[in-house]
């Protein structure tokens, strides 16, 4: 069994996954629960979906807690933290997965839409990380993993707002990694390519086929493939990996 510098066995650590009621977030929760870890499933409004993910995780024998919070609000994040402290589930591992996308021309983007995408993807990551990194610093150990996007690296036509938000997340990752490295806390980002989730629902079958044809491996990624990479970065033996933007994308971007 791997033991972290904090002398807490990996399987006894706690992971908080934001936006874990579906898609990649749910797959990440399943992956950590498969080794019996303490798993916190965060959601905003999808109460029943979060409970379904929790039930699936508990089948592995994991200790699971669901918790709702609007991550754009520091007050709600503080309440979330109080709840986790009450249940003795302060995270050693934070996975910032919550996010929203937008597809459309920049000329059609309203100021409100811009703010919504930035606030959920970027401000939410900032506020959540700022609060939950403090116990990690105190114990001289922790893992922060941000779920970004290939478009945060390369940019995408008709996804300017989303690309900008994820590009900001990547810069946040690199800078914070340097800031927290002396405290034994690693910070990395996983930037998936096209993954079979609801975020692809804006595209019809023909458009999806055209996208898949552009990917050298010939298909979209699966949420569990992204979850496996997140899990690897969380391991104690991954402690020399920090400040990295790793993009599992089937060879689409090299």
UniProtKB/TrEMBL annotation:
GO terms for biological process: monocarboxylic acid metabolic process. One of its GO terms (molecular function) is oxidoreductase activity. Pfam families: adh_short_C2. Gene3D superfamilies: NAD(P)-binding Rossmann-like Domain. Keywords: Oxidoreductase. SUPFAM superfamilies: NAD(P)-binding Rossmann-fold domains. It comes from the Bacteria. Coiled coil: none annotated. InterPro entries: NAD(P)-bd_dom_sf (IPR036291), Sc_DH/Rdtase_CS (IPR020904), SDR (IPR050259), SDR_fam (IPR002347). Belongs to the short-chain dehydrogenases/reductases (SDR) family. This is 3-oxoacyl-ACP reductase. It comes from Paenibacillus rigui. The lineage of its organism: Bacteria, Bacillati, Bacillota, Bacilli, Bacillales.
């Amino acid at each position: 069994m791997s033991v972290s510098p904090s002398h807490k066995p990996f399987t006894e650590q706690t992971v908080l996954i934001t936006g874990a009621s579906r898609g990649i977030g749910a797959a990440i929760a399943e992956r950590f629960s498969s080794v019996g870890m303490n798993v916190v499933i965060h959601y905003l409004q999808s109460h029943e979906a979060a409970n379904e993910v929790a039930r699936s995780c508990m089948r592995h024998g994991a200790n699971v807690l669901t918790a709702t919070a609007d991550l754009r609000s520091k007050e709600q994040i503080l309440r979330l933290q109080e709840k986790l402290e009450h249940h003795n589930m302060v995270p050693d591992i934070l996975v910032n997965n919550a996010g929203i996308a937008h597809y459309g021309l920049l000329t059609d983007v309203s100021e409100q839409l811009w703010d919504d995408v930035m606030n959920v993807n970027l401000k939410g990551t900032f506020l959540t990380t700022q609060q939950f990194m403090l116990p990690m610093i105190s114990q001289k150990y922790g893992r922060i993993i941000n779920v970004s996007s290939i478009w945060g690296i390369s940019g995408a036509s008709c996804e300017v707002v989303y690309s900008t938000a994820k590009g900001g997340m990547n810069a946040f990752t690199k800078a914070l990694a340097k800031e927290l490295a002396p405290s034994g806390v690693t910070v990395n980002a996983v930037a998936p390519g096209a993954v079979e989730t609801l975020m692809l629902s804006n595209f019809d079958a023909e458009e999806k086929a055209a996208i898949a044809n552009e990917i050298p491996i010939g298909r979209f990624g699966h949420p569990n493939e992204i979850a496996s990479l997140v899990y690897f970065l969380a391991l104690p033996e991954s402690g020399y990996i920090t400040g990295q933007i790793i993009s599992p994308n089937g060879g689409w971007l090299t």
